[in-house]
Each structure stands twice: as structure tokens, then as C-alpha cells.
Design brief:
six-stranded mixed sheet; 760 residues; Rossmann fold; 26 helices; Signal recognition particle alu RNA binding heterodimer, srp9/1; alpha/beta; five-stranded mixed sheet
Length: 760
């Protein structure tokens, strides 16, 4: 249903309502009809007059008698009001006189009647002139009237109507450039209700209260409550802000005006303000109603030059919006809903109480919310009995509603490709992997050397994750290339939802991220370009620990960075001096070096497990977390845990028995300060580099792992005399050739830690 139909259905619109005479479509149509009639009559009168004057000539009756006596007249037609004279052919007559040329040389004239028809007829017959007269024909008169008057009028009317519709189409036409082009919805038009919204219970509850106020205003007015003038929906993209607005439209039972913030801005200056006035005018006529402005930051941007202010057209639109929100009466039941993911750039005057009274946060759903969202999107999809939506929700920490809906759809597509009638758990997990790291790149075939490199790299990540205490368990390891550039990855799934991370957990995550590079250096005594993504993530996490979380003893609780776009890209900006920023860089380098040293230490202590796991991964290409832990426990002689024995690792310890007994009992232990030692204020990063610690793995030569999967050749440590310069140069050249091959392949990296949704 379009806007006009909805407006005409309301009693406030039309001639009977206020200001109805100014915007009555019927009156506008009559005006256009009158203009078309006048134009048609003017054109036809001019056309007829010009045609008659070009073909006939008026003479006096005396001239007519003279020509009759001179035998110059051939025939005469006597009409009601005139005498039409046809003169005899003349050689001197011009055949093309005027615009409308005569088809013969005979000249036509006319004159008025000066005597009765009988006398005139006798005079003409005596002179030998042919006499004729018109026979009255009513049909001819009607046809002539239709042809000369009605038909041109109809043609002009159709032409003007066509041009008017063409010019009136679109919001940028001169006819309706200042009118609001908001779409009006009524009940059940959106097809969305609050039952279709899941995972945002708090936001939904706030909107339910607003809808209930519109339905039952008496209960609130009786106690003295007032309807909020506006509610601002704030949250990251894809969390369901627009879906909530559609649900409000489906539940409100009142007119729902929906438009985007960019719809107010046009080419002409002042159009935005005019459309705001027209929007609130129509809303007042249809009260109670709801106005929804999506992406309100397009017109509500702060007028401060810091946030890109200074646009006169945008400022005029914003000023008009502020004025209208202050001007209309809240008792009429007009509610304004706005949606944005950039609340930090909105004008402060727009956010004050009395305009947008409520700020409804539509944030990323938690574990329970993700399960509910998956159930909503999976209700129309045929699922197998083996599907565990809880496991999918646990593996997609930080995902928003749009991500989960996309995963369900991708899983259904995967089931169709596999010729299955129902979606199984495998299809869902593959869909999760497709969103995280992309699809399998089947056309990329790795060499044996590269497969070994990738295998050890990924096993390095997984092994450190198994050794560390504050890490998430490994779900899957693969060396199958992916379309997002990864030649392999390790998938980790948490055992439970976490909202806080400890300092030790963040430290261990950095160690895991650097485990792949550490494995390369320890096993092959070289490094590759495959750790690009790992280094990026480790550096980002280390910088957050120092600048955002206050986990550096050198800087203490000083915040060195601020978040600019919290709900978009999470972009940070340093708010410290250049000298402090230089010290921050050194502190980050120090932390990364310590984590890398710890990673190499762990790898060097578990070389046998590394070899077995890498060999098994090369054979299978993809192994599960259970297979990985089984081989690891067998190699390290760790007994298999019994069923039901696995418990969540202890994350925190209490320093006092009294504190440990509060609430849930926790262990009493004084945490060890081993990750970031306090070097003192005068200790510098340069001094630490001058006196490096002795590393036992610097002199360690790793054994050669044979290509044969059934046999491993233990290579003894090389002697000193065997390590000659020519062999070293050959190894260097081989490594250079290998690096050149890697760079020429265009992969850039072979390790890719799956981008978790909750990461920035």
C-alpha cells in the first residue's frame, strides 16, 4: 500500500480535515482540467481561423454582383449565414498561395447575404451560374464538433496527464520535492512481530512498553506518566535494530512511518527541512503513530567541525528536526524511533531528554540469545535429529543475528549440495568455518615441503594450547587451504561463555598466537611469511593489555588509547604524547618477546609430540580435537580422563581463606608473577637486549623427520667440522629460493587463526 492510499483512508486527510483544501488531489485535478480546456480552445480557434483565412477571401456584396455580371463566377453555394463563391479558372491564379496551398487554380470567396434566397437564386440562374445549398445533417454537425473540439481536447488532456505523472514521479521532482517520501505501514504489513525477534530481550521489553502505551494510554495518564518522545536504537550492524522497528510496526496497530536518514537530503537547498515539516504534519494528522528514521546519523550528525559539521543543508535539516520534536504535543501519541551504529557523532541537542528520552542498546547476543536466534532462523529449515544448536552457539561467540541467519542458510545450501534431505551438524559446522575462514580452496596444491611447514606451524598452535592452562580446547586442525588466504588453521571452541578475561588468559593467547612462528624456528631453524596473521593478532592483543586494560606495571592504570567507533570497527586513537607512545611501543615489543620466548620453550620441551602430531596431520590433512588430544596424551604419558571427570579450569584464586569462602568456593593460592616481571622504572628495553639470557634451544639441532610415513630417521646432532661455510651458504641459498617461491605464490601467509566474532 502506497503513501497516498494510506493517507486517503484516514479521516484526517482530504477536504474535511485541517488544511485539506490546500492538498486536495481532486481540486488539483480540476485545476489541471481547466488549464487543458483553455489551452485546447485557444489552439483550435487559432487553427480554424488560420485555415479559413488561408483558403477563402471575404468580399463585399457589391463586388459579388460585379463579378456575377462579368461572368467570372462558376458556382455559388448558399449557406445559412454566407454565400460561398467559386470563381472560374484563371491562368494568372497562383496554385500555392500561403501556407495552406490550394489544390486547384479556382479561387474561393465568400460574402454575406444582402437579399432573400429566391431573388438571389433567380439572379444566379439567369446568369448561368450553378447554384447549390447545404442539406441539414445533424450527424455531420456532431461529428464535426467531435473532430474539431472533443478529440483535440482529449489528446491534450492525455498528453498533459502523462507529462504530469512523469514529472511527479520520484522525490526529486519539482512538484513534490519538499514532500516527505516516508512509507506508511499498518498492522500485519511488515510480517514481523515480537515473536520473530530473539536474543534481545531487554531491547524488546523497552519497545513493548512503548507499544502498550499507544494501546492503553489511559493507564499511564492516570498515574501521571508521559509517552517518551523518542527512542534511539543503538548497536553494531546486524544486531536487529531495523527488525525491531518492523516488529513494532507489526504490533502497534497504528500507522508506522518508515524512512532513512538520507531520504531527507536532496540536491536542492532547504528540501530536508521542508520534508521534516511535512513528515511531522502528516504524523500529527494520523496520531497516534510511530515515525522510524533508520541511520539517523545521516541528518543528526554533530554540528561540531570535529565530526564533519559545517554542511548548511544538513544543519538546516537537523535544526528543523529539533524544532519539530520540541513543538509537537506528546499527548497526541507520536513516537519517534531512530536507529544508528554511530551514536558518538550525533548532536548533543538531539540526545537530551525531551527529544530522544530512551537509548535502547541492541548489543551482540550472549550464548542464550544466540541459541534463541538460531532456533528462530531454523524453524523453517528441515533439521536432522543430530543437530545441536547449543554447540553452534558456543562456537560462534560474538556473532550477531545476521551472521547466524547467514550460517543457517549456508548450512541448508551445503545439505542440498550433499544430496541430503535434512541439515545435519556437519553442515552447520562447515557453515561456521565458511564464515570464519572461507571455503576450501581445492585448486591450490601444496608441495611436500610446504605441507610439512604448514603442518608443524599449526601443530605448534595446538600444542601450546594443550600445554597452557588458561586456554580454550582445540576443536579442529587442518592444513587444507581456504579462500581467505589461510593455508591452515586451528579452531578453538570455548567450553563456556566468558565475559571477562584475566591477565593470564590474555598472556596465554599471545603465546598461542606466536606458537606457529616458534615451531618454525625450533624445528626448521628458519621462519616463513606464514605468521603474518598471527603477529597481527598478537600485537593487537599486547597493545590492548598495555594501553586499554592497565596491565602494564610501567604505565599502571593510565589509559593511553580511546575507542572512536565502538559499534563499528572499534578504531582506537592514542591520547598520549609522542614520547609516551614511543615507550608504549617498547613495552609492547618487550611483552611480545617474552611471550615468544615462552612459546619456543614449550615447543622445545615437547618435540616428540610435535613430530607425531605433524606426521598424523600430514596424512589426514584434517584432524579433530579428540584425535589431537589422544595422540598428545599418549606421547606425554598423560592418562585419559574419565567421563564426567572434566571440569572447567580454575581461572582465579583467592589470597585469603575468608575471601575464598564467599559465594562459590575457590582455591586459595597466591598467583605467581611470571609473565611480566617488574624491571623497575630505570630498567630499559635496550639494556635487556644487551644481556640476553642463555637459550638452550639456540644450540639445539632438531631431528630430521623422514617423508616416509612409516619410518622416522633419527639424525644425530651434526659435528662441528661438518658445519662448514659452503654448506651454510647452500642452506641459505635454499632458504632464499624457498622464500622466493613463497612470495611468488601470492599466499602471503599459511596460518590463519579464525577471526572470532568477538574480536575487534
Amino acid at each position: 500500500m502506497d503513501n497516498n492510499q494510506n493517507q486517503n483512508s484516514n479521516p484526517g486527510n482530504g477536504s474535511g480535515g485541517p488544511d485539506g483544501n490546500n492538498n486536495n488531489p481532486r481540486r488539483q485535478s480540476l485545476l489541471v482540467l481547466l488549464v487543458a480546456v483553455l489551452v485546447t480552445m485557444f489552439i483550435m480557434s487559432y487553427f480554424m481561423r488560420y485555415t479559413t483565412e488561408s483558403q477563402t477571401k471575404e468580399i463585399t456584396y457589391s463586388e459579388f454582383i460585379t463579378e456575377l455580371n462579368d461572368k467570372q463566377i462558376e458556382s455559388v453555394k448558399i449557406q445559412d449565414d454566407r454565400i460561398v463563391i467559386t470563381k472560374k479558372s484563371s491562368s494568372s491564379a497562383t496554385e500555392s498561395s500561403g501556407f495552406f496551398a490550394s489544390t486547384s487554380a479556382k479561387e474561393t470567396e465568400y460574402t454575406g447575404k444582402a437579399e432573400d434566397d429566391d431573388t438571389l437564386t433567380k439572379r444566379l440562374l439567369a446568369a448561368g451560374v450553378e447554384v447549390s445549398s447545404n442539406v441539414p445533417d445533424s450527424s455531420g454537425v456532431v461529428i464535426s464538433f467531435i473532430v474539431y473540439y472533443i478529440l483535440p481536447f482529449v489528446l491534450v488532456w492525455v498528453l498533459l496527464g502523462f507529462l504530469y505523472r512523469r514529472m511527479s514521479k520520484g522525490s526529486g521532482s519539482p512538484f513534490n520535492v519538499g514532500k516527505s517520501n516516508a512509507k506508511v505501514y499498518v498492522q500485519k504489513e511488515t510480517g514481523v512481530t515480537f515473536k520473530d525477534v530473539a536474543g534481545e530481550d531487554e531491547a524488546k521489553e523497552s519497545l513493548v512498553e512503548v507499544v502498550d502505551f499507544l494501546h492503553n494510554p489511559g493507564r499511564y495518564v492516570q498515574i501521571g506518566a508521559k509517552l517518551p518522545k523518542g527512542a534511539l536504537l543503538v548497536g553494531p550492524p546486524g544486531t536487529g535494530k531495523t527488525l525491531l522497528a518492523k516488529a513494532v510496526a507489526g504490533e502497534a496497530h497504528v500507522p508506522f512511518f518508515s524512512l532513512a536518514g538520507s531520504d531527507f537530503i536532496e540536491l536542492y537547498v532547504g528540501v530536508g527541512a521542508s520534508r521534516v515539516r511535512d513528515l511531522f504534519k502528516e504524523a500529527s494528522k494520523n496520531a497516534p503513530c510511530i515515525i522510524f528514521i533508520d541511520e539517523i546519523d545521516a541528518i543528526g550528525r554533530s554540528r561540531d567541525s570535529k565530526f564533519g559539521g559545517g554542511n548548511e543543508e544538513r544543519e538546516q535539516t537537523l535544526n528543523q528536526l529539533l524544532s519539530e520534536m520540541d513543538g509537537f504535543d506528546s499527548s497526541k501519541g507520536v513516537l519517534i524511533l531512530g536507529a544508528t551504529n554511530r551514536p558518538e557523532i550525533l548532536d548533543k541537542a538531539l540526545l537530551r531528554p525531551g527529544r530522544f528520552d530512551r537509548r535502547i542498546i541492541v548489543d551482540k547476543p550472549d550464548l542464550k540469545g544466540r541459541v534463541e536466534i538460531l532456533k528462530v532462523h531454523a524453524k523453517d529449515v528441515r533439521m536432522d535429529e543430530s543437530v545441536d544448536l547449543d554447540a553452534i552457539a558456543l562456537a560462534t561467540s560474538g556473532a550477531v543475528g545476521s551472521d547466524l541467519a547467514n550460517m543457517i542458510n549456508e548450512a541448508a545450501i551445503n545439505a542440498v549440495k550433499a544430496h541430503r534431505e535434512c541439515v545435519c551438524q556437519q553442515d552447520l559446522m562447515e557453515a561456521v568455518e565458511q564464515v570464519l575462514v572461507g571455503k576450501e580452496k581445492k585448486d591450490r596444491v601444496l608441495s611436500k615441503e610446504e605441507r610439512k611447514l604448514v603442518s608443524y606451524h599449526e601443530v605448534g598452535h595446538a600444542l601450546i594450547s594443550a600445554v597452557q592452562k588458561n586456554t580454550e580446547p582445540v576443536q579442529k586442525i587442518t592444513i587444507v587451504p581456504r579462500t581467505m588466504g589461510a593455508l591452515g588453521y586451528v579452531m578453538q571452541v570455548p567450553e563456556e561463555e566468558k565475559y571477562l578475561k584475566t591477565k593470564d588468559e590474555l598472556h596465554d593467547e599471545i603465546v598461542i598466537a606466536l606458537g606457529g612462528r616458534a615451531a618454525e624456528e625450533v624445528i626448521f631453524n628458519t621462519v616463513t611469511t606464514g605468521a603474518e596473521n598471527d603477529i597481527e593478532k598478537a600485537t593487537e592483543e599486547a597493545r590492548d593489555m598495555i594501553t586499554m586494560y592497565g596491565m602494564s606495571k610501567k604505565f599502571g592504570l593510565m589509559q593511553l588509547e580511546t575507542v572512536q567507533n565502538r559499534y563499528l570497527d572499534g578504531r582506537r586513537e592514542m591520547n598520549c604524547s609522542d614520547s609516551t607512545a614511543s615507550k608504549v611501543d617498547k613495552e609492547v615489543m618487550k611483552l611480545l618477546d617474552e611471550c615468544y620466548t615462552e612459546a619456543k620453550k614449550i615447543i622445545s620441551e615437547h618435540l616428540d609430540a610435535m613430530d607425531k602430531l605433524a606426521q598424523f596431520l600430514i596424512e589426514k590433512e584434517t584432524i579433530s580435537g579428540k584425535e589431537f588430544m589422544k595422540i598428545y596424551r599418549e606421547t606425554e604419558c598423560i592418562p585419559e580422563p574419565e567421563e564426567g571427570e572434566q571440569k572447567a579450569p580454575v581461572r582465579i584464586f583467592a589470597t585469603r581463606p575468608e575471601s575464598a569462602a564467599v559465594g562459590e568456593n575457590i582455591p586459595v593460592k597466591k598467583p605467581e608473577e611470571k609473565h611480566i616481571p617488574d624491571d623497575g622504572e630505570n630498567a630499559s628495553f635496550e639494556k635487556r637486549e644487551e644481556a640476553p639470557q642463555e637459550k638452550p634451544w639456540d644450540t639445539y639441532v632438531p631431528p630430521y623427520v623422514a617423508e616416509n610415513v612409516e619410518q622416522r630417521i633419527e639424525a644425530p646432532a651434526p659435528k662441528a667440522e661438518e658445519q662448514k661455510q659452503p654448506e651454510k651458504e647452500a642452506d641459505d641459498s635454499q632458504n632464499a629460493d624457498h622464500a622466493e617461491d613463497q612470495s611468488s605464490s601470492g599466499s602471503g601467509r599459511f596460518s590463519h587463526t579464525p577471526d572470532r566474532f568477538d574480536q575487534k
